[in-house]
Design a protein that fits this description.
It is a single chain. By secondary structure, the chain is α/β, with parallel strands linked by helices. It has 2 domains: 244 residues, Collagenase (Catalytic Domain) (3-Layer(aba) Sandwich); 68 residues, no CATH class. It is built from 6 helices and 11 strands. The strands form 2 sheets. Strands 1, 2, 3, 4, 5, 6, 7, 8 and 11 form a 9-stranded mixed β-sheet that branches. It has a two-stranded antiparallel sheet with strand order 9-10. A hairpin with a 7-residue loop joins strand 7 and strand 8. The chain is globular, with a radius of gyration of 20 Å. Bound molecules: zinc ion. The site of zinc ion (ZN) has 6 residues, from strand 1 and helix 5.
């Protein structure tokens, strides 16, 4: 399952005076069976009961088992201890399309790492830029994501680093909208990654989103085990919080979130959803400025993770799924 940051807008063009704007987000699901992978695991992995195997690799389809394990540890065995800062190496790979590739300024990469490190500072997880590599005649984001991400596994296998988090920056063709039967629909992939998965230790982003304050921290949130705040795979989360550990994003620190389709109810100047209720009359108050929501930025309100989200990421970072990537741990004085 690849979780991305994707915007989907449709506009009815039948009558210009009655244009209707809507916003909804597509969650894209990828299912992969057991495939060989060049990514090896720590030697003692097979002694861990909470790791799921398919021969010598972790199946993408089994990732969920490990996430469940981490979330079930809460709250007793979570890693609240932030006495040490753990550092992960990251490698940027700039994929330049054959035609008119967007030039990426090295200063922008440095700034993107700073944005990421500021977002993750409370979790005592930091990232070190290890290298930047350019790849010519490369695929575009559209080519990687078309046909339900058909080209992504081979792309990942070819270009991912073994000992670092690889962040792939791809060109897109800038063609986000199409018109059919008087309806214009616009869809744009900002970035995507798998949640806490061995086989694809990468993040894929569009070049124009490199300095977006939300996209890279959002994808890194997935990389370290976080779900969207509007996740409803186990049913819609109740506003009254009676089921917050088992529905939604499984975290009680993030209020029930009906999802971006209802973003029309948000007053972005106050960063608050107003007037949208459930069938019992309770009003939704999602955390609009949470990194893992799908809402627009609030006016003068920074993006944030909750403390519980930081703890989940810290736990995931120290788990066998991610800890083989840790470069160093330094005591916080
Ligand atoms: Zn996402």
């Amino acid at each position: 399952m690849a979780f991305g940051f994707i915007t989907f807008i449709y506009m009815l063009k039948c009558l210009p005076l009655y244009r209707i704007f809507g916003l909804m987000i597509l969650l894209l699901y990828l299912c992969h069976g057991c495939t060989s992978s060049k990514h090896s695991l720590a030697a003692d992995c097979n002694e861990k009961e909470d790791v799921f195997y398919c021969e010598d690799t972790i199946c993408a389809k089994d990732y969920h088992g490990h996430i469940d394990t981490i979330y079930k540890q809460m709250p007793s065995d979570m890693h609240y201890d932030m006495d040490q800062t753990i550092y992960f190496p990251i490698v940027f790979k700039i994929h330049n399309a054959a035609n008119n590739p967007r030039i990426v300024n090295p200063k922008d990469i440095t700034q993107a790492v700073q944005i990421l490190n500021e977002a993750f500072l409370p979790s005592a997880i930091q990232f070190k830029l290890q290298s930047v590599e350019k790849i010519s005649e490369a695929n575009t984001l559209q080519q990687i994501t078309e046909n339900t991400y058909e080209a992504y596994p081979a792309f990942s296998k070819k270009y991912d680093e073994l000992d670092a988090i690889t962040i792939h920056l791809l060109d897109d063709n800038g063609e986000y909208c199409e018109e059919q039967d008087n309806i214009v629909s616009c869809r744009r992939v900002h970035g995507f990654t798998y949640i806490l998965n061995y086989q694809y230790p990468n993040i894929v982003m569009s070049k124009p989103d490199l300095l977006n304050e939300k996209v890279l921290p959002h994808e890194m949130g997935h990389f370290f085990g976080l779900f969207h705040t509007h996740r409803d795979m186990e049913g819609e989360e109740k506003i009254i919080r009676s089921d917050c550990e088992t529905t939604g994003d499984h975290l009680c620190s993030t209020p029930a979130d009906p999802g971006p389709l209802y973003g029309i109810y948000i007053d972005y100047t106050r960063c608050e959803m107003i007037g949208y209720t459930d069938q019992n009359g309770y009003e939704y108050k999602p955390m609009i400025n949470n990194y893992m929501s799908y809402y627009y930025p609030c006016y003068r309100r920074a993006f944030t993770f909750t403390e519980e989200q930081y703890i989940v990421m810290r736990t995931a970072a120290l788990s066998v799924v991610r800890n083989y990537l840790i470069e160093e741990e330094i005591d916080n004085d």
